[in-house]
Model the fold of this input.
Amino acid sequence: MSSETVGPDGIGWRVGRRWLPARVRLRDWDWRESAPDWDGLSFFDDPSGFLLALGVIATAMIVFLVIWPIVAIALELVILALLFLASLAGRVLFRKPWTVFARSAGLGEPRVHEWRVVGWRDSSRLIADVRAALRSGGELPAGAVTTGPPPQALPRVGRGSPQRWT
Done:
């Protein structure tokens, strides 16, 4: 979970702890290239074939609209709980460091500061220190890996409220 803060120079920052290393995005995949070929659907010409097809469609609708969502939701909740417990146990037992980040809000590419910290409490303290340093305009804690250009202040929206970013 991350929180937002605004520095004295008007630059908005999102500061938080990253649970996963990176996001996976599927932008280059086109579903139309893998669509099936529907040749040979001549069984609809016969009335018994048509009734059979309607029965199959009705059964499939009941299965996919009623039964499958219940099973899928239950299965997803079990998998989600197991993954959460395994990742938390892995971080605690193997002392894998948390990634604490500070990401600027801007019109172009954001500026990102990242720290690697072992331990939940230490990372919480670092988050509080980073937020305080950004809010007051002071020096950030040592050990950050910084990427991106220097941030520029966002234009104000409304009366003294900082611009929100997505």
Summary: Residues 47-93 form the longest helix (47 residues). The helical segments are 47-93, 120-136.
